[in-house]
Amino acid sequence: MKLDAIDLRILEAIQENGRITKLALAEKAGLSPTPCWLRLRKLEKAGIVSGYHARVAVRRVAPVASVMMEVTLANHRQADFERFERAVAATPEIVACWSVGGGVDYILKIMAADIDAYQRLVDDLLDRELGIDRYFTYIVTKTVKEETVLPLATLLPVQGPE
Predict the structure, then answer these.
(1) Is residue 41 within 8 Å of residue 56, measured between CB atoms?
(2) 98-124: pLDDT as tens digits
(3) Which residues make Cβ contacts (< 8 Å) with residue 31, sequence separation at least 6?
């Protein structure tokens, strides 16, 4: 699907405020409400808008441990990757996982109540024999930047009317 400048303005606006009103969204997009709403629905149906979420500042409620973990699997058959990825998908504390090229196979972001809870999670993963050969743990001591808003203007080519 090709996006034009209006689509881009709609996407930028809903990234900044997923609860924006139809009228405010139309104003930001430079359209009247009905065509703007139809465009948004088209973006949703195309899977470009994949959901609406609230960001929860969990540290304002309780201390938590954020951990980055590098994982290298012992074997690199498709079945090995699939088994590991199924386990990751079924583990709520693993809030993000990236398959990467280079010296490791995966990088995981894990949120746990504390370091002991993190270690219990790792022990469970190892006990399940998911093919983990080695892992490295990095405790997050400070979040410097964690954006959910994508820089669409620099990532997407714009087609059509400005």
Answers:
(1) no
(2) 999 999 999 999 999 999 999 999 999
(3) 6, 39
